[in-house]
Design goal:
Layout (H helix, E strand, L loop, with lengths): L8 E4 L5 H12 L3 E6 L2 H15 L4 E5 L5 H15 L4 E4 L14 H29 L2 E6 L12 H21 L4 E8 L5 H14 L3 H10 L9 H11 L11 E4 L8
Parallel strand pairs: 1-2, 1-4, 2-3, 4-5, 5-6, 6-7
Helix pairs in contact: 1-2, 1-8, 3-4, 4-5, 6-7
């Protein structure tokens, strides 16, 4: 299948590691011009070099961006436009909010999660839309979590703000279809990342068991009997952001090996 991504201008946010990095790598494999962002220039430079070496695609660059800052997002999009003339694909991504239950969070915690996991997406979309509308084409893919389908224990902030991304995407799909701009939301289930390791350590500590035991039990709860790999999630993102996706918009998906039971 021709994904029609060669030479396309792609932004992947929060892409110095984890699922963002895996996604940027898969776009680069398809010949896209990929701009990655995160807060750490050292990590970005390292990731850029790793992607170039792995793919042979020299068209990878980066910009330091704190996605809680509106000006940083503006500068990120402007760099992509200065580099490639437009933005064809935006992949919204942000680190997950802290774990915890209701009593654990104050107003600052709520504000941080809102700015990180919802408002940053709004701002990035706002910046790329003029270019996508002008060319009558664009793809936007929003990272979320499996909490878009089923609430997760001890992850109140994620359960609150991730579904907001779904509402945003669904509404924008209605508005932007006429401009041939497709927008979808994808949530990972148990994918092997630092974030999952962090949450596993917290949960294993609460249960008083070794993390290896907790992870083994979790893997067995997945119909496919294993956790997913970052590239398996990334390939779904790349399809949704590609020219091969011509009619799928306004949808929320989970890549989870069948773990989530909600319809």
């Amino acid at each position: 299948m021709d994904l029609k991504l060669k030479g396309k201008s792609v932004i992947v946010m929060a892409a110095s590691k984890g699922l963002g990095k895996a996604t940027a790598l898969e776009f680069a494999k398809e010949g896209a011009h990929v701009l990655i962002s995160s807060r750490s220039e050292d990590e970005l430079a390292k990731t850029k070099n790793e992607i170039q070496q792995a793919t042979g695609n020299e068209n990878v660059t980066y910009v330091v961006c704190n996605i809680k800052k509106q000006q940083d997002i503006k500068q990120m999009v402007q760099k992509a436009v200065d580099w490639n003339g437009t933005v064809d694909v935006l992949v919204n991504n942000a680190g997950g909010p802290p774990a915890g239950t209701f009593d654990a969070f104050n107003d600052d915690d709520w504000q941080h999660a809102f700015e990180l996991n919802l408002l940053s997406y709004v701002r990035a979309i706002r910046e790329v839309l003029p270019y996508m509308k002008q060319q009558n084409s664009g793809r936007i893919v929003n990272f979320a979590s499996s909490s878009i389908k089923q609430s997760l224990d001890n992850l109140l902030l994620s359960n609150t703000f991730r579904p907001g991304i779904v509402g945003l995407s669904k509404s924008l799909a209605q508005e932007l279809g006429v401009d041939n701009i497709l927008i979808n939301t994808v949530g990972p289930g148990r994918i092997q990342t630092d974030r999952i390791m962090e949450l596993d350590q917290i949960k294993a500590g609460e249960l008083g068991i070794p993390i290896e035991e907790y992870q083994f039990k979790n893997a067995k709860s997945i119909p496919m009997q294993r956790v997913g790999q970052p590239e398996e999630f990334a390939k779904t993102i790349v399809f949704l952001g590609s020219g091969a996706n011509t009619y799928l918009t306004g949808q929320s998906l989970v890549v989870d090996g069948g773990l989530v039971k909600a319809l």
